[in-house]
Write a structure and sequence with these properties.
Helix content: over 70%
Number of strands: 0
CATH superfamily: Hemerythrin-like
Structural class: mainly alpha
CATH topology: Four Helix Bundle (Hemerythrin (Met), subunit A)
CATH architecture: Up-down Bundle
Distance between the termini: 41 Å
Radius of gyration: 16 Å
Length: 136
Amino acid sequence: MVYQFTKDLETGNELIDNEHRQLFTAINKLLSACMTGRGRTEIEETLNFLNNYVNKHFSDEEGLQRKYRYPDYPNHKRYHDAFRKTVQNLVDEYQQKGASIDLVAKTNTSVAGWLLNHIKKEDVKVAAHIRECTSA
């Protein structure tokens, strides 16, 4: 299954949306590799990307939330921190056990599922708040 960055996933914030598109590209690259039997080869690159991505993207997003005094910032940050831990657990598993089909599957399901849910439920609220602040 290829994940598409559709209109319903757009937050309306260019920075956030562009970073989300990068994540979709990385996950789709891993899925494509899996379909051709190269998932275990691609997993290291994907995990390196994810590790860097969560640090940069969440920092950018949290910076915007603080700048515009997003009222649900503490909860949103908790979601980010939990996902940082998920990514770190995947990286740790890779470092301890190496590439495996199980790790590739875990990476696909945990990242894609979390991302879709988080964008649709949380990031859209952040973007709406920022739009409200900047249009006032």
